[in-house]
Amino acid sequence: MTLQSTLRSFLLFILLCAISGVGFAQDAIEHIWYNQEKTAKVQIFKATDGKYYGKVVWLKEPYNEEGKPKVDKNNPDKAKKSTPLMGLQLLKGFKKDGDNEYTDGTIYDPKNGKTYSCKITRKGETLDVRGYVGISLLGRTTTWTKAE
Q1: Domains of the chain (ranges, CATH numbers)
Q2: What one-character-per-residue DSSP string does 14-28 give?
């Protein structure tokens, strides 16, 4: 096989992937997002189970007063209290529901150590992230903005 035929085959593969929407396609929610206070960035990604998850990839203040990495000190599970906040998975198990809705997931709040039911609504360059207990009416919405 010559270099020219190999290049032609590769370009054909890329074209087929683009046409079929397979391969390099990424969902609109799969980005890095600032939380509402802009104190953290969360990367949302699609896992092999087809659900969406989000982990902390940047903190405005990553270290505590002693110069050590901040940890999940408010976690009710004593074994997890020393887990670093950097890399911590906050969003778990979201399913895409229509074009802009992501439902049936949970959000963990390291400020109080609690996990809430959650739904996410994408609105262009922002996300409405609603954590709630029981029904969605009993909750709070924060707005996240696209970081990169």
Answers
A1: 1-26 (no CATH), 31-146 (2.40.128.520)
A2: HHHHHHHT-SS---T
